[in-house]
Amino acid sequence: MGEEEAVAEENGGLKVESGEQKSSWPTMRFDVSPYRTHHFSKQFRTARNPNNFLKGLKWSPDGSCFLASSEDNTLSLFHLPQDGGDSNGYGVPVPEEETIRYIFGIVLLLRCTYRAYDAMDEITAAFSVGFNPDGTKIFAGYNSSIRVFDLHRPGRDFRQYSTLQKNKEGQAGILSTLAFSPTNSGMLAVGSYGQTTGIYREDNMELLYVLHGQEGGVTHDPYILCWDIRKSVEIVYKLYRATENTNQRVFFDIEPCGRHLGTGGQDGLVHMYDLQTGNWVSGYQAASDTVNAFSFHPYLPMAATSSGHRRFAIPDDDDGEDKNELQLKADENCVSLWSFYVEDNTYDENNGVASESHLQNVTEEIVLT
């Protein structure tokens, strides 16, 4: 036991098994609000597109950087700072083409393009995209169909699977989101605008279940629904988020250990829920406008949020012309990085909260190794 604690201390509180070198997820404290470590807003406010706004973000698998997408068809890449300085971010324009582009690595080189065609031999746009767990195929959601591309065969070759069966059972409408089982069980969940979620086999797209109970499209339903796949007849519980008055996609995330879920909403808050009980745990103010994405870091006790929504210029009563500039606050249309306190042997003497200095050491040690 003493050796394990020593190893954990050397790794910033993360326990590492000597044989397989596997790190365990740090236990984050949600009874204490996280603190903002970095904030970005100027990068998304340009004169050529004053109504630009963020639409979502996601960490890279290794946690070294994250991508943020915005309304001006640009992907902005941000590297995680290692010295406490500013994160160096830059944007890559994404053309408005109905193609799927595989952008490789840190330098964002276009390596392959995958195109889907409809019955009229015209390019059709995907509404959702995802890699399968082993990274050999790209699954894309369309209107009542899924197209599967072989990663090693770019171009227009694909397999198409209809999600609406001949007896009209299955899923109809736009398939707006895809999610693969993290346990590599070979199952794929597909959400649609038709207020259904379908569970399929990855290898042959056989429909296993159709889950009902949503009040809106799966990506902006005011409730996040939880089912037990072993007994999918009833909903286990519902988690509320303020999204009932928007058509915007609002993304949630589950921490790597699978215990808690974080989600944003129109109220600018991030809400944390305990997935074992379905109870609300805590919340904190992340922005003054819609928090459309929340993403846990894959290894560190950190998270990233993006906020923003479409705004319209208000006509001036005097001359009847629209105002050219939208007055935005610093915490509107922005990206923020948050650090959570962790439960370990280093606490503040007064209130038992892990000290910021210790948390900073945890971050630096893990990033630099």
Automatic annotation (TrEMBL):
Family matches, as InterPro entries: SWT21/TCAB1_mRNA_Telomere (IPR051150), WD40/YVTN_repeat-like_dom_sf (IPR015943), WD40_repeat_dom_sf (IPR036322), WD40_rpt (IPR001680)
Gene3D superfamilies: YVTN repeat-like/Quinoprotein amine dehydrogenase
Region (Disordered): 1-22
Pfam families from the UniProt entry: WD40 (PF00400)
Protein name in the entry: Uncharacterized protein AT4g21520
Organism of derivation: Arabidopsis thaliana (Mouse-ear cress)
This protein's encoding gene: F18E5.140
